[in-house]
Amino acid sequence: MSLKSKLHDLKEKYKGKKMAPAFNALHTFLYLPNEVTHNGTHIKAADDLKRTMNTVIMALVPCLIFGMYNAGYQHYLAQGMIESANGFLGASFWTIDNLLIGAWTILPLVAVSYGVGLAVEFLFAVIKGHEVEEGYLVTGMLVPLIVPVDIPLWMLAVAVIFGVVIGKEVFGGTGMNILNPALTIRAFLFFAYPTWMSGDKVWVHGAVERDQMIAAGQSNLDAISGETILGSYAQNSTVAYDYWDMFWGLIPGSVGETSKFLIIIGALFLIFTKIGSWRIMLSTVVGALVMGLIFNGVVDAGIITDSSKFYGLMSVPFWQHLIIGSILFGAVFMATDPVTASQTNKGKWIYGFLIGFISIMIRVFNPAYPEGVFLAILLMNVFAPTIDHYVVQGNVKKRMKRLKVKAA
Amino acid sequence: MGLLSKKDSKLISDPLLDNNPITIQVLGICSALAITAELKASIVMSISVLFVLGVGNVVISLMRNIIPSKIRIIVQLVVVAALVIIVDQVLKAYAYELSKTLSVFVGLIITNCIIMGRFEAFALGNGPWRSFLDGIGNAAGYGFILILVGFFRELLGSGTLLGFPVLGDPIEKTGLYSIGYENNGFMLLSPMALIVVGLIIWVQRSRNKALIED
């Protein structure tokens, strides 16, 4: 007896019982169900929720695999065990050693994210008696990509429970949430355990332990370098990476957001398959550039001099804001979440522009933590329905006016 | 209960759960969010409100037939302000550190909606004994939620209860901290208090469906 028919029998057995949605979900996720409806007109469409979700996951896979290599690469590089790889195809980057240690640290993050998140989803489906929704498939993939490599697994688990319950289920589940669940999870981690989410130690695998060993005199290494580029700028210190490193992604950072190259490939894939909104992506980038230009202008006008603590980040050339930090990742994979973004086309322009604009503003002015993309997106998530409301009202007004002109 | 008639004892038991001022009437949220980061502050705040509301309800109830209805709000304000000043001075004299923690929120008991609400809704129309019971009941319902929220926030946020380290020492890495546990800093921020209150409301209403309003 195959697994498929076993699942089918289980489904039949539990029909109408509390556990039924759990078996249903497994069955339809793994196989095409046997049941066939015989009457009524049907439209057969392939672009259902599962297909949409899987497309986004496919766009994310390159970032995940690159993140594994990069985790290993940063780990060995920080210990001086390998040479710096010059460029995307550098010989010391795509090694099996890098991949092994990267996979060893990152796959548990993926497993915890999916395991805990889906467990909560199944639990709520059973309690509330509805079918399990696919909403967590993308969230579960995004979460490991936006946290530091060495985040303790239990913290991630707590954050996932919080994010799925408070960010999504209390609003009524998939499709009803106001906030992006993946970003809710990151915000929770950031405010709850700030020592694991910011600073110059957490972005490179093993750096925290090595730092403790150095402090205890057990290591022959001198110091730790694991500062992100934004962190360096925020402290007005020099940056050790060139622009191509930043673009290819050979820099410390959250797991999946470092490679701008692969994010752009993912973006093109999403735009080509019409899953992601190019309006939001483009307007976010424009918003970030405009804010960067304003800051550059302020510096050029001499209002802010290099004695200011904001000088470092304000004087970053405006285009460079796109290749440092996680603004591109946020724009492509987070801001475009169809549930929490604006629904109207005009609204999408406003929504995206403000995300980019506010992201760079927080990035420059936040002294404690020089990155604001996730805060900006969460803020605009809250305002997205308001933006839509005014766009729709504006349209109604315009058409009412036209009607009056015609009548008169 | 020998001491209280059935009707009177309902005055105390109702506001504790099924008609709780915080979770059902959603009043007094402001102070519930602001001062519940420590259990001790929550307890002192609860006792202060217990005193102000108990005594205030009796005073208003005694004066209910001589207060002209046009200026009753002002009279109520004078009564509650006088009581709050007493509380404030006592705290400053005997618990100075704590009064600094509570800072402006002791003074803001004056504006706590629960107090004016009970004066208006109950003390103006009932005798002193019943008003006293009503005041005690509502303040206890308020304090119960405050202490519950304060308990979770201090335990998970600082790893202490009433200042005693119950989970071990986070710096020396003893107790729970030796296996990698860390305090949740989010618990100390006010938004988390709102979420904790929300979770209590959720649990309460899912246990008693009659409380769900549309």
From TrEMBL, chain A:
User: Where is the protein localized?
Assistant: Cell membrane
**What enzyme class is recorded for this protein?**
translocase
Record bears the keyword Hydrolase: no
Q: One biological-process term from Gene Ontology? A: sodium ion transport
InterPro entries reported for this sequence: NqrB, NqrB/RnfD
Report TM segments. 52-70, 103-125, 145-166, 178-196, 246-273, 280-298, 318-336, 348-366, 372-392
For the modification FMN phosphoryl threonine, which residues carry it?
T228
Question: Which named protein is this?
Answer: Na(+)-translocating NADH-quinone reductase subunit B
Native source organism of the sequence: Nonlabens ulvanivorans
What's the name of its gene?
nqrB
